Amino acid sequence: MIPVELTINGKAVKKTVEPRLSLADFLRDHLRLTGTHTGCEHGVCGACTVEVDGQIARSCINLAVACDGAQVRSIEGFDDDPLMEKLRQAFTAEHALQCGYCTPGMLIAARDLIRRKPGADLATIRHAMSGNLCRCTGYVGILRAIQRVIGEPLPAEVAPAPKAVVAVTPSAAVPPAAAPAGRAGWTTLEQRIDLPHAPDKVWALFQDLARVAPCMPGAELVDYAGGDRARGRVTAKFGPISASFEGEASFRADPAQRIGTILGTGRDRRSATRAEGEVRYTLTPLADGKATRVVILLQFGLAGPLAQFGRTSLVQDFVSRLTVQFARNAEAALAGSTAAPKQLDTGSMLWAVVKAWLARLFGRG
Ligand code: FES
Ligand code: FES
Fold first, then answer.
1. Which of 346, 132, 322 has the alpha carbon at shortest distance from 241?
2. Residue 99, ligand 2, Cβ within 6 A
């Protein structure tokens, strides 16, 4: 069990939870905030959408412990929000809900869109809302409701969203020197995982490339004979289309501060897309040294046809999924499991979400 402290809808919350508890289950089962719905529990349908540090996030694929120190806002936290009030009225006027199961997630995603892109046209609204699924109303009323509100000036009390496209969650656990700015145009994402093992044990795993590399879904070592360089491959699958980046990585580690850096470059032959990136991880002790927090700062740039994969929401969801599976695999490895690490479950539901995006990218439906 790991202690967490968050601010939920403006109130400080302190609990001790299982490391694998999702934020959605934390909100629903521990705090009785049942306005956050769970549908697919795979990060696909958007029913569980909440705000974490001002950015929308899928609470079913974010761990509660990874949100330690964060400000979380669930649908209940928008009761007095004037922009949400306008949206609620518009949803009613346009018959934009039937059973209402998708509605909390729809409302939070729509409010986020309106703050980020006031005045957006219908195509932009459709695109932005494509990660929220409704199985009974149909989308026409929902789109009309958002159109009603998006053309109006923002209520004075509601701040427009910052212009930055990419979410970077600052963390006190990352020393300033360990969080470089990254190159212009690169995507920067931060993930945190908590492992119920002492930092020395976790550090030893992270320094053992042959053990830790297979924990990352889709990653494999192609050529590694020890030392600080390796050739590897990372495969990302979405439905029937996959990209396989093959390339080189180099490693640096500072055992005194327990900070490590991996620099890598790779190329997907099929799409001729090049990738370059840096992963920086920092380990800090938790629970009197019995557990470890790993803060992972991922910065990368893509050049070529798959560069559109850098679209923030898709990448954030994908990286969240990768991180959760990596944490499970790392935990199993630390517990001495010899079973093959599990790969990412990218089933048909994920395919449904990215289908529209891929159709645009590859010109087929
Ligand atoms: S329940 Fe979280 S995205 Fe579907
Ligand atoms: S209103 Fe029923 S799922 Fe959307």
1. 346
2. yes
Residue 346 token pair:
């990218």
CB atoms within 10 A of CB 96: 28
Ligand 2 pocket residue status of 102, Cβ below 6 Å: yes
Going by pLDDT thresholds of 50, 70 and 90, the confidence category of residue 95 is: very high
Nearest to 351 by CA among 333, 365, 336, 335: 365
Ligand 2 pocket test, candidate residues 48, 99, 140, most atoms within 8 A of CB? 99
Q: Is the CB of 97 under 6 A from ligand 2?
A: yes
The yes-or-no verdict on residue 274 having pLDDT over 50 is yes
* pLDDT (tens digit per residue) in 164-221: 322 223 333 333 334 445 566 677 777 788 888 899 999 998 888 888 888 887 888 8
Of 3.10.20.30, 3.30.200.20, 2.60.40.1120, 3.40.50.620, which CATH number belongs to 2-77? Answer: 3.10.20.30
Q: Which residues line ligand 1 (CB under 6 A)?
A: 38-41, 43-48, 58, 60
The rounded mean pLDDT for the chain is 80
The pTM of this model reads 0.56
Tokens representing 28? Answer: 């629903």
**Nearest atom of ligand 1 to the alpha carbon of 43:** 3
Structure token digits, residue 1: 């069990």
pLDDT of residue 226: 80
Q: Residue 351 has what pLDDT? A: 46
What backbone phi and psi angles, to 5 degrees, belong to 144? -60, -40
**Closest C-alpha to ligand 1, atom 3:** 43
139 lines ligand 2 (CB under 6 A): no
Residue type, position 185, single letter: G
Architecture of domain 176-362: 2-Layer Sandwich (3.30)
For domain 80-150, give the fold: DNA polymerase; domain 1 (1.10.150)
